[in-house]
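Review form for a predicted model. The reviewer records the input and the model, then writes brief findings.
Reviewer: anonymous (R2)
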Amino acid sequence: MVNLGGEFLLIMLYNEEERIRRDSTKWTLVQGVLAPLQFVVFLVSLGFVLNYLLYGTYESAASVSVVMKTFILCLIMVTGSIWEKAVFDKYLFAKPFYWEDVVSIFVVFLHLLYLFVYFFDFLSVESQLYVALLAYFAYVVNAVQFLFKFKQARDQNPKEFIF
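Model under review:
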């Protein structure tokens, strides 16, 4: 929504052609499955990471869980780019999702930074996991962006959504 001197203009996420492409591509379902899966992996991993940072236990589980979270993030980025191409004819930075994609690139960078410091054994384990926490914070910001877009799409076409 854009405020125009007290009046609000609703900005549509999808035109009719894009909506049809969104609803007909298999990549919409793929994103719908991977996004909640990534969130569950994030929560489990966050638990292991915080447990290690607070109590010094489950070091291997914490480290491996961040690697798994990074793998799923990369998978969802690739499939999300394919989805964006199918719907908007651009692999990244389609106008309706421009800022989500910008933040997503930063999220991927931070996760890959974690992999770098982990696999090349830079920094202490504790410092590595602080890098992971920074990546996770950015992921949460990005997830909120996408949830807002999902709500915006649902509000624009409530009959299309069952939840």
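Findings: Helices lie at 16-24, 26-55, 59-88, 98-119, 125-156.
Further findings: The chain has one domain: 15-151.
Recommendation: see findings above.
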